[in-house]
Recover the amino acids of this structure.
């Protein structure tokens, strides 16, 4: 059973609202930067990266950073293409709460300033996305449709992310802009439970949840490229929101 990702569209209305707040042009003092000429740039970034995680969970409107625990996604979509057997799934969640980012452990960071590339490894003991959803399409060949409450949970989540940025000259200086990203992850357990499937037919709904529970590896396999895309887009939107207002040389001063 193969499936490829067609793409995922994703809207962060919340970030747009945050963006309206008057942005500062300098980093807040709790952000410790690393010198671009530091021979141990990766070590410096890892240390400061770890220090900053607990500081940023409540968000910071002055740098257009949304609240991260819980992070609220106004609307997020997962789309799979379906394989030769047809299918494809379109799942949208509305005002979803993402819980678990505050427990993130930064395991590795590698920065290549010349190539404008960053690699990250992050571990999350548990990450849950809960909220209202609607779904339509096929999952493991089973037709599935309905709307209600969803809970998608990932345990022991190891995320690797690669980010490429470019520099954009604008009034006010030079700004970084994340142009592309690659995200992959492994997890010890994926669970997805849905209420309200099949126009409220409880027997069919229970049956689907049992399938989701028993065949979670296959389900995850189908959804993984799309979930990775969505995670990558969230990272990109969030970073660009900040990069748009703070000149690049503030992040890596050549002190
Ligand atoms: C979501 O599911 C996980 C794992 O089953 C559970 O620990 C968590 O409490 C659930 N969250 C909500 C909001 O129901
Ligand atoms: C999920 O499956 C496991 C075994 O694979 C079983 O022990 C557990 O009771 C199931 N949970 C639900 C909610 O069906």
């Amino acid at each position: 059973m193969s499936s490829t990702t067609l793409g995922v569209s994703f809207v962060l209305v919340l970030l747009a609202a945050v963006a309206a707040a008057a942005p500062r042009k300098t980093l807040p003092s709790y952000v410790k930067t690393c010198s671009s000429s530091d021979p141990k740039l990766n070590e410096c970034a890892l240390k400061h990266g770890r220090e900053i995680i607990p500081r940023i969970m409540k968000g910071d409107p002055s740098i257009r950073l949304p609240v991260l625990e819980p992070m609220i996604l106004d609307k997020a979509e997962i789309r799979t293409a379906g394989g030769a057997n047809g299918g494809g799934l379109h799942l949208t969640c509305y005002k979803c709460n993402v819980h678990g980012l505050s427990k993130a452990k930064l395991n590795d960071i590698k920065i290549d300033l010349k190539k404008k590339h960053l690699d990250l490894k992050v571990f999350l003991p548990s990450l849950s996305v809960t909220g209202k959803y609607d779904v339509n399409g096929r999952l493991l060949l089973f037709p599935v449709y309905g709307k209600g409450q969803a809970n998608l949970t990932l345990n022991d989540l190891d995320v690797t992310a690669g980010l490429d940025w470019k520099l954009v000259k604008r009034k006010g200086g030079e700004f970084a802009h994340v142009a592309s990203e690659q995200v992959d992850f492994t997890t010890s357990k994926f669970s997805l439970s849905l209420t309200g499937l099949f126009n409220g037919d409880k027997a069919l709904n229970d049956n689907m949840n049992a399938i989701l529970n028993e065949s979670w590896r296959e389900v995850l396999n189908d959804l993984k490229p799309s979930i990775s895309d969505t995670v990558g887009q969230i990272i990109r939107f969030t970073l660009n929101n900040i990069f748009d207002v703070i000149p690049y040389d503030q992040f890596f001063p050549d002190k």
Remarks:
- Strands lie at 10-11, 71-80, 89-99, 105-112, 117-139, 142-170, 173-186, 189-194.
- Residues 115 and 124 are 28 Å apart (CA to CA).
- The first strand starts at residue 10 and ends at 11.
